[in-house]
Each structure stands twice: as structure tokens, then as C-alpha cells.
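[Q] Does anyone have a clean C-alpha cell version of this?
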Amino acid sequence: MANFTIADVKALREQLGTGLSDTKKALEDADGDMEKAVELLRLKGVKGNAKRADRSAAEGLVAAKVNDNGTASIIELNCETDFVAKGDKFIELANQVLDPVAAAGASNSAEALAADAGGQTVEQLISDVAAVIGEKFELRNVRLVKGEKFDIYMHLTSKDLPPQVGVILGYEGDDEETAHGIAQHIAFANPSYLERDEVPESVIDAERRVVEEITRAEGKPEAALPKIVEGRLGAFFKQIVLNEQEYARDPKFSIKQIAEQKGIKVVDFARLKVGAGVEAAEED
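[A] Here you go.
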């Protein structure tokens, strides 16, 4: 006769989020010992993690928080299905991950995974929960933003899912409304750099070669090429440099002009979108 009750099965399922049959089998194998059953379920899940390593984790959420040292942190935590992404266990895990990542001041996923999460690393924490739920989890992106003040904008692409696009804006000044408008603009316009001088020379050179080739193919006079190429490079900068983009709420002004008019200065930003890295890899 089994040394456990239906209440034990229910309690263990609520604790770990495991399936009914797996939970019951673990308790049977553990002869009703709850601690041993937990260990059996975790071991089974860890083996499953290895099998899931090559699967795609393109769903998930973004989460962010302001820290108390002039920084703010944002993470992208991924899973395989939207069903798991909107579940309480996954959302709770994101919060459990975000706090130690922020406390460690992690600025990339490698630093974040090594951060201490109450006696274990963030990587181990994620692995343990993934093992129980039965999907591949991945902490794909982590950013640390500096600033005097911060605005966090979380964009819902579906009312049934947690935030899929997240922005942190670090700024100086007092106009919170304008700061929030710029954060929303970033979510929409997806700039890569704050200032033109942050764009790597390799990126500029590659774009210049493409523009020159296109311009020559159009049959433009050789003497006019430099001016045309520089003009088109200017348009390229407006696509990727935040301060040079046309403000989405009032395209007559650039982001820099709007910020100056409202007495604020953008000093840093980060934008994360769930699955963006996976999309780019698949396109390649």
C-alpha cells in the first residue's frame, strides 16, 4: 500500500509544477518520502534538460527593475512555448532571476548566470525549474543601464502574454512624461546606438560600401558620388542612432531636439525583444 495520500500528490505538484503521473510515480518510487520524491523529479528533469539542449526557446518574457546604485537591469528569459511563458511558475522564476542579476550588477548573460541566487547560481536555479517544468529555458539577454533617473516601459504584444518588448531609459532632468514617450519610441523604432560616434567603424564602412555600389549601379555621375553617399549614410544613421531618429510622437523633431526642448538628456538605454536573437539566427 502506498505510503502517501492524494493530498501529498497535490502538495508536491503545487510545489514543483509537475504532472500528475510523474508526481505520483516519484512518490511511489520514494515510498512516500517527499524529499526523496523531489530529488527523483529533479534528476529526471535534469536528464530531460540535456535532451532539450538543441531545441529552440523563442518564447518568454522581459523583466526589468531600477537598482539603488544609479543603474537599472533588464533581462530576457526564454522558454519553448507561450503556454509556459504565461504561467505563474515561469513569471515567478523571472522575478527570482532578476533580483540576483541586478544585485550582482551583471551586464551580460555570462555574468548573470554566475550570480549568486541564495546558495546556488542563477544558472542552476534556471536549470532546476526547467527540469521540473520540462522545457528548455534560456537567459538569453541581460543589460545594465546607467542614469540619474530611469523610465521602464514594458510592451504587451498580446494581452494573454507577459511583456515581450522591454525598454529602460536612463536620463537626466525632471520631465518624466517626455522620458516615458522616448522609452515608448525606443520600443517602436529599435535604435542600436545613442550617438553617432558609438557606431563601430566596421559597421559604417560596410554600409558605405553597399551605398556606393547601389549609387554606382543607378548610374549617378562619378563626381556626385561622395555627396550622394554621405547623404545616404546620414539616412542610415537616422535609422540606427536614437538621438538622430525622428520622434515618433512628433516627427518634425529628432529625439535629441525633443529632449533638449523638455530639459532632459538621454544618457543610456536598452531594448530587449523576446526571441529577437532566435529570429536573427534563423535568418542567417
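[Q] Thanks! Anything notable?
[A] Strands lie at 59-66, 71-79, 138-146, 149-155, 165-172, 265-273.
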